[in-house]
Write a structure and sequence with these properties.
Strand order of the largest sheet: 1-2-3-4-5-12-6-11-10-9-8-7
Order of helices and strands: EHHEEEHEHEHEHHHEEEHEHE
Number of domains: 2
CATH superfamily of the largest domain: Gcn5-related N-acetyltransferase (GNAT)
CATH architecture of the largest domain: 3-Layer(aba) Sandwich
Distance between the termini: 31 Å
Mean pLDDT: 95
Number of strands: 12
């Protein structure tokens, strides 16, 4: 029987669950927690989000879903690009299902005016794997390389005292923490820092541009996180003049309080060289550990060329578990 590629309605819970099961099975052999728990996807994927458009594809054989595709694209900035992901059920690989999903995702992206498609391939540290070969055959180039790292909270807690002694907050600065919603007096300066992200983090050859973050946009994004039960435990460094000098966060979902993930970490170039990054990370990890007694691991990823951030994460106890290839194709 022929396999059909169909677009799925994320609000159709039965279809969404079948889609989720394919992705879960396709990523089951990867280390860490590469696939969200069902309850997280059930809430997050159908949620209204004026910042992001999504398209879900299913490869259907009879009454079974044997492949899953996902296309995401920003609706506020970088309107030329989209992110595409394809997953094939492990017992149905090498049948051309992945290729057909990618081709359909590219068609949807092109129809939406997107000219650059980005994706990801995951490899054993220092190794190669089938996804890398598949990406090349589909015309995707490696635009950047990142290390995916995992931290055992027990390891972090054993290191914490020594780290804290070496990362004292500089004179005149202070660190404040909050859960998801930035204090009113700092939100405008926070937006200025968020606008620096794309110009300050190493992107390699990725075709991405900086964006602007107004107070309204930040508040709307925070409310979406609250609505889906995601807690963005944030530490913010406040400079002597009151400006936001740096920020870092650890994100934990109500549906999975065993595993967390680092979101962003950035220090304003004007305030670097004071070990603010390490102080911020200590504050976020302390907050997450205190909030969730069952939190066991935290994941992060950083460009391999970002030696400063990699050194900070290794000092905290993070260990590389995968290599991430950031892929890119011009349509």
């Amino acid at each position: 029987m022929a396999v059909d590629i169909e677009q799925l309605n994320p609000r159709n819970e039965a279809a969404l669950r079948a889609w989720w099961e394919v992705g879960h099975a396709a990523t089951a052999d990867r280390p860490g927690k590469p696939w969200p728990v069902w309850e997280q996807s059930r809430v997050a994927l159908p949620a209204d989000n004026p910042e992001r458009g999504i398209t879900l594809l299913g490869a259907i054989d009879g009454r079974e879903m044997v492949g899953a595709g996902l296309l995401t694209r920003s609706l506020k900035d970088n309107l030329h690009s989209a992110m595409a992901f394809a997953f094939t059920r492990p017992d149905r690989t090498r049948e051309g299902i992945g290729r057909r999903l990618v081709e359909e995702l590219e068609l949807v992206a092109a129809g939406d005016g997107r000219t650059t498609i980005q994706s990801e391939a995951y490899l054993p540290p220092g190794g190669s794997a089938v996804p890398e070969e598949f990406a090349r055959t589909m015309g995707y180039d490696v635009a950047s390389r990142e290390s995916i790292k995992e931290l055992a909270l027990s390891d972090y807690l054993g290191r914490r005292a020594a780290l804290a002694a070496s990362a004292r907050v500089p004179d005149g600065y202070r660190i404040l923490t909050f859960d998801t919603v930035c204090p009113d007096e700092h939100v405008e300066s926070f937006g200025r820092l968020l606008g620096m992200l794309m110009s300050e983090v190493p992107l390699g050859e990725l075709d991405l541009q900086s964006s602007e973050w107004s107070v309204h946009r930040i508040r709307a994004a925070e409310q979406r996180q609250v609505d889906i039960g995601r807690h963005v435990h944030t530490a913010m460094a406040i400079a002597p003049d009151g400006a936001v000098a740096g920020v870092s966060d650890v994100r934990v979902d109500d549906t999975d309080t065993v595993a967390g993930q680092v979101g962003i970490t950035i220090v304003d170039p004007a305030h670097r060289g004071r070990r603010l990054g390490l102080a911020l990370k200590l504050a976020t990890h302390d907050l997450a550990a205190a909030t969730y007694p069952d939190l066991a691991t935290v994941d992060t990823s950083n460009a391999e060329v970002n030696s400063w951030m990699n050194a900070v994460n290794e000092a905290l106890g993070y260990r590389t578990i995968e290599t991430l290839l950031e892929l890119q194709k011009k349509l």
